[in-house]
Amino acid sequence: MSLKSTKSYPRVLIFSQTFNKISGGGITLTNLFFGYPRENIAVLTYPFMLLHASFEPCNNYYQLGREEYSWSFPLNYIKKKFNSGPVQIEKNNSRITANQPYLRNRIATDILSPFLRWSGLTHCVSRIKISDRLKKWLEKYEPEVLYLQISNRESILYSLELIEYLKIPAAIHMMDDWPMTVSSRGPFRKYWHNRIDREFRELLAKTTSYLSISDAMSEEYLNRYGKQFKAFHNPVDPSWFNEDPVTNESDKRYFRVLYLGRIGIANEYSLLAFSEFISNYIYQDCIVEFDVYTKDIDSKIARRIGNLKGVRINLPVNHEDVPSLMTRYQLLLLPLDFTRSGLKFSRLSMPSKTSEYMLSGTPIMVMAPAESAVSKFCTYNKCAHCISSDKLEDLTKTMNFLIENDDYRKDLASGAKRLANQLFNRRKVTRDFRDFLVTLSSFK
Description:
Rossmann fold, 16 helices, 8-stranded mixed β-sheet, 444 residues, alpha/beta, 6-stranded parallel β-sheet
C-alpha cells in the first residue's frame, strides 16, 4: 500500500545513524527531527548501531544482515550473521526484542581488528548489497529523500548504491572530518586515503545537498571539495534548562568542574592532561574537583584518569538528567586534543554538547587548539573561556583566574545562554531543517 506524501514532511530514509541519546550524531539527529511525523521516517542501519537506538522518534528500522552482508575470509567464519529485515520493537517503547546484535568470538575479533585497521584490509573485507527483502521494504515505504550520516568506505560505497537504486534526492551530513583520518595508519595508508578520497568525491558528485556541523567545516569543504555545505548543529530546547546554576554560599568551599561525553580520539589526551593537573592543583581554601561522566568508563585512558586524586569517573546519567547535573557545577570543560591525529579529526567539529553547555547557564572552559572550530567560535562570540594549551603552568594560571573572577564567569555564562537561544533554539532550527528537507524533495 502506498503511503501518502505530504508537502510539509517528505518521507525520509536515514542511512547508518540511528536516533539515540549517547552519541553526538544520534543526539543531533534526534533533535533535528523533533516533531517530525514518525510515520515519515525510516532508518536503514547496521546491527551494532541498534544497541543504543531510540525508537520514540522512529519505529521503522531495517537491520542490514545476512541477506545484505558478505565478508571475506576469515571474517566470514568469525562474524556473527544477523537476521535481515525490519526490527521488532516492544510496545513499551524502545527495546529491540529480536535481531539484537551480540558479539561472537570476541577474543578472535579483538585480535583481528587492530591488524585489519593497520593493514588497511578493514576497508575491503566486507560488502553490502541491496537484497530482495530490502527492496520490498523500500518499495512499501516509498522514501522521497535520502539522508546520509556516514563515516567509512563501506558506507560510502553503499550510499552510492542506494542513490543509484532509489533515484531520489540525497543529502549528506558531516559530523566531523573523518575523510582525513579514516586511513591514518599502516603501510598502505596513503593508498587507501587517496582511494577513499576519490570515492567520497564521487559520492558528493551524486549527492543533491550537503550539510556540515559547523561554519568552519562549510568553509573548509567549499575549498576542498567545491561544494556548498549548510551548517546544522545540534539544536536544544531552551525550556530543558529550567534550573539555575549553583549560587549557594556553602558551595564556595568547593570548585567543581564537569565533563560529559565520550573519551576517544578527539579528546583523550587533553582529558588526561587536565585530570593530572587537577590531581596536583591546590588553591588556598578551595577544594577543586573534576567529575567525568562517560560511557567509555572502561577505556585505558578512563582507568588512568579514575586513579588520580580529585578526579571521579562515572557512568553517564540519563539524558533527561543532564540539565540538572550541569547546574551543580561551577565550570564545564570542553576539551579537544592537541595531538596531530586528534586535531586532524576534530579541527572542523563542533561537539554536540556545545549547545547544551551554552544553554545550561554554567560557564564553559574550552581547552582546545586555537585553530579548532569550537575554539574559534567561542573566542569570537566570547561565550567560553578558551585556553589553547595543555601545559601545567597555563592551566594553573587559567584555573586561578576563573576561580577568582566570579563576575567574569557569570558574564560568560549569561552571554553563552543568550547566543545559544539565538543560534541553537530547537524550534527555529527544526523548522529550518524541515524546510531544507522540503526543498530537497523538490529536486527530482
